[in-house]
Structures are given as C-alpha cells and as structure tokens.
Design goal:
250 residues; globular; mainly alpha
Length: 250
C-alpha cells in the first residue's frame, strides 16, 4: 500500500467526525485523539518491531512482551479501582496467560521461537486478556453493587465470603467469557478474522492462513478462561475485612 492510498483511508475518519458533528454526539475530540494516537503508536511500533525482528535478540523480545503486559495492566486496572491490589492481580494474570500459552506453543514446537511469531501472537493474546479483564471487572463490580444486600444477608446467616459472593463471581466470569465464545461460533461465516485476512492479503495459502487462525482461536479460549477465573478468585477475598464483612467501595 502506498502512502497516497493510506491517506485516502482517512475518509473513514471523516465520516464519523461528520456524523458526530451533525448529530451533536460530542465525539469529535475523542475521535481525533484516537486517530492521532493510533497513527503515532502504530508507526512507532512498526519501527521498533523492524529493529527487533532484524536483531532477533531474546532480550528485546522479552522487553516487548513486558511492555505489552505493563500497558495492558495500566489500562485494565481502571475498571477495578475499588479493589485493593488490583494492579498486581491483573499483571499476574497477564503473565500467567502469556507463560501458559507461549509455553504450549513453543514447548510443543507449534510455532518457531522467533520474534516474528512470538510478538504478534503475544500481542493478540495479551490484548484479548486485557479486554476480558475489563469486561469481568466491569460486570463484577456492578454485580456486587446491585446485590450487596443479598451478600450481607448470607454473611449474617453464617455464610463465608466465598459462599456469599459465589453467584456474583460466577455470573461475572460467564458474562465476560460470552463474547469470546459467541464470536467463535460464527467465525468464518460472519467474519474473517484479522490474522487470517492479513495472511491471505499478503499472498499466503488460504488453508495455511486458516490453520494459523485456528491456533489463535484455541489459544483465545484458554486466555478468556484463565483471565476471568484468575482475576475473579484473586479479587473477591480483598472485598471482605477480617470480620468477614463486605467492604463498601468508596
């Protein structure tokens, strides 16, 4: 793609800007900020990846993965601001997700141990884990707020914190996993995933592109499950004090 062709794609930015202005949605500033940030960030990452791919150093690969985890943690923790220690809980979850998925992929020789494979796949899995963490925390905090009386009743009757919050915890875990599961039910029929489409556009054999996409799909299921369950079970104990009373979020 030439820079001229790329500049023409800004039409897709002008359309929402125009509609936001006409309908008075007030999204013009956010749209412009998102557009400018995406251009700067992607160009910067492009040059960084070019350098990392050329060197192939394991140190640079680990630094890139660490940067992804750090950035994802900072973004996701906003939704769990009322949960004590949420930053390290999210970071730990993302690290476990990365270690488990890459451990399987590299340990069984499914992908080569090169930057060209490790970094893009890590980015997809960590990004998905971040989104799942945000979905879980958003639903979990809402569940606790709307069912606080029920939780306190169970505690007053002698129930443990785990028993008192079990239904809300499971509900939040299931709700955060539903988008991943549902999107995979119609994949290939309703949408062609980005990785698969990119490989096909790049000239790869469609069957090989499908194989790599299946790899990502299966890994995303593990990512979704680990992310929701780990953050859930790491978070709920700190919602109660030593007297087994629920701590109200300020």
């Amino acid at each position: 793609m030439t820079y001229t062709a790329l500049s023409l794609t800004l039409i897709f930015v002008l359309i929402p800007l125009l509609l936001s202005k006409v309908l008075k949605l007030g999204l013009e500033k956010d749209t412009m900020i998102a557009t400018i940030r995406s251009i700067i960030q992607l160009l910067a990452v492009g040059y960084i990846l070019k350098f990392v791919f050329e060197t192939g150093s394991i140190i640079y690969i680990l630094l890139m993965v660490a940067l992804m985890i750090f950035t994802a943690t900072l973004n996701a923790r906003k939704k769990g601001a009322g949960i004590r220690g949420i930053t390290w809980k999210i970071a730990s979850t993302l690290v476990v997700v990365e270690v488990v998925t890459q451990g399987v992929l590299l340990g069984f020789g499914i992908i080569p141990a090169t930057a060209q494979y490790i970094i893009p796949i890590s980015g997809m899995l960590i990004g998905n884990s971040m989104v799942l963490s945000i979905l879980f925390l958003n639903r979990f905090t809402a569940e606790i707020t709307s069912h606080q009386d029920e939780i306190e009743l169970i505690l007053s009757l002698g129930g443990t914190p785990k028993q008192a919050i079990h239904r809300q915890l499971i509900s939040a875990i299931k709700a955060s996993m539903i988008p991943t599961i549902e999107s995979q039910k119609t994949i290939g029929l309703v949408q062609l995933p980005g990785m698969m489409s990119g490989q096909i556009i790049g000239g790869a054999d469609p069957i090989q592109a499908v194989q790599f996409q299946l790899l990502i799909i299966f890994a995303l299921l593990t990512t979704a499950t680990l992310s929701s369950i780990m953050i859930g079970f790491l978070s709920y104990p700190v919602l109660f004090n030593e007297r087994m009373q629920i701590i109200e979020n300020k």
